[in-house]
Amino acid sequence: MDHNVVIIDAVRTPFGKFGGRLREHSAVELGAxxxxxxxxxxxxxxxxxxETIFGCGIIDASTAVPARQINFKVGIPATTPxxxxxxxxxxxxxxxxxxxxxxxLGEASVIVxxxxxxxxxxxxxxRGTRWGRKLGDFSVEDPMHVRNxxxxxxxxxxxxxxxxxxxxxREMQDEWSYQSHRKYFAAYDAGVYExxxxxxxxxxxxxxxxxxxxxxxxxxxRLAALPTAYGSPTVTAGNAPGLNDGASAxxxxxxxxxxxxxxxxxxEVIAYAQLSGDLESSVYMPGHAIVAAAKKAGxxxxxxxCIEINEAFAAMPLVxxxxxxxxxxxxxxxxxxxxxxxGGSVAIGHPPGASGARVVMAAARELRRRxxxxxxxxxxxxxxxxxxxxxxx
Length: 393
What we know:
34% of the residues lie in helices and 19% in strands. It is α/β, with parallel strands linked by helices.
């Protein structure tokens, strides 16, 4: 049995703004577009897939079993199993982790894993109305007003408070955000995103090939002028990503299967780790998850050539790298210098179900640009949870 699992190729749609150019596309439609393009690019027929695994963070917008719906839209046979994963923002990285396990066990030969989200199509919820009411007002709940359903606290508040605890003030978060936009456009203009982003023909907008969130005119002055959000001490609309639409997908198989098909892998998935902590631990959990995945892979942080940490807020990579470095200031500077070098989710956008696979494909491609070695990708999600993978190329 071949335990070496590789990513053959990876693609994502552009990430759209809330109510932006992709708002008429459902999460399922976006996922199907990504999968069709991915299969065509890799020369794999739909009937050759063993399974599809897709993450979705806000399943209200996708109705039932969206992974199964994607299968039918793509033309994957009805006999092909599918799995929909809800681990909030971790979901599509969890999908990759599950694919890794199944392929290593010999339970599958070719798997498409990824994630989808349409924040724009997420409906309002009106609870307690199914059986009617004789008197009184109805209340409407908005799932996009992101709060912890267990504690009721806004995520912006928890993130801001934890960031300050770890010595990461607002100014540092604004600076990271500014650099996220700046690095994105430097990379985009250099063609870094050419193989990653699938251009979409969108009615009324022509071809959309650029993420909608990044701003060339972002400045530290503009970021500093923004008010904090929902009572947070540090988090603003400028140092957090928007509510976004998009899909991401990767093809995984054993190295032996790739050789049999004459396919050149993008990267090998060496290790996957999944952790959980207390309800307010999300800001630093990606750091712990990366350390755990590196330990599984038998490598140290010094072996890493590049790191991707999802910018659910700018605070996440800042605090997580601090956790990884400990009290070593030089190591902290080194880790941050190789983290999200082509921009992150503050600029690109964060469709919760799709971001985990996006940071994996970003790490894989950057690793190849750097001549190979090891890379890490980490993401938090689901109120104190985190996933991480270690890649080799």
